[in-house]
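Today's session is about reading a structure prediction critically. Students often jump straight to the picture, but the first step is always the sequence itself: look for stretches that repeat, for charged clusters, for runs of hydrophobic residues. Only then move on to the predicted structure, which in these notes is written as discrete structure tokens rather than atom positions. Here is the chain we will use throughout the hour.
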Amino acid sequence: MGDNAALRQAIAELGISHVELAHRINTHTEALTGRYGTCTERTVHNWVAGRTGWPNARQRAGLEAVFDCTAEQLGFTPRGQRSVSLSEEPVRRRTFITAGPTAAAAVAAPMLATRHTVGLSDVGRMRAGLQALDALDDHQGGHATLERAALAGARQVIDLQQNSTAGERVRRRLFSVAADFTALAAWSCIDAREPDRARQHLDRCATLAGLAQDSTAQLRVWNSIAILANQERRHGDAVAAGRAAQRTGITRQDPLFASLAHARTAVGLANCGDRQGALRSLGLAGDALGRACDQPRPTWMAFYGPAELHALTAIARDRLGDAEQAEWASHRALATLPERFRRNRALATA
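Below is the predicted structure for this chain, in token form.
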């Protein structure tokens, strides 16, 4: 029969292993029959390899429940006339229906919770909502409405993660999206000069980024902490946050993130009066930016590029007393800043 590409793709989209798929199918069989199923990792491997072209009725029901589609859509071909399904109604992953006098009488047996399966497509849908809020921030800057919307998005993602079935990779990505929503809420508070709420959101965001094992989200947290610390004139803390950002894994993978971390450190050092350190960090930021290339990145990072580096250079130079260099850098920022960053343009103009 050959490789079952449809099933292979469905498993990859769901982000689960063969072992976990077998477990879910067996759990579904147990819910219907009272006995844990007999599906194994080898069973799934044979399906994917095309060695088994038509699973038995119980396993087909489990497959259809997990993937919310028919066995034929998963690449299987019936042997003659398709066997009757175990349930009279199509089984769907979002609702498992158990009925009958035996089920009603089994008071001691645990009830099957209604939990639907989350895949990478669900993660993408959540991230699309986040991208819309990032665009709103680029246009208007931080405000209370944006904070509330971001927190609502984070709650929705966490609820989905807690009340659904998902593979480990998908769970980490959900935590990552929740971290980004929370970071946006924190940034909105920073931009609106609400430091207490910003700190609360950043603490939560750091936890979510750790659960996600997402170094990009971790850098975003340290970047925001550095900005907040400079606002509150805790310049030593700002330098420490900038250096923590430099140590995140994403800076070794993508020079653009390394450039941002160095630039943020430069502002903190300039506020501390460390001329040599600030200029060295600005030089490192420029070198890293020169090595950066176009590639997919989170939408929140769209603000950073040559224009933003010029703007941060202007701030650092101003703190160091270099008025002419600061003015030149501000003009360069305005000349290269994309039109959609209205808030950034207003700051550079001021």
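Discussion point for the tutorial: Residues 81-114 have pLDDT under 50 and may be disordered.
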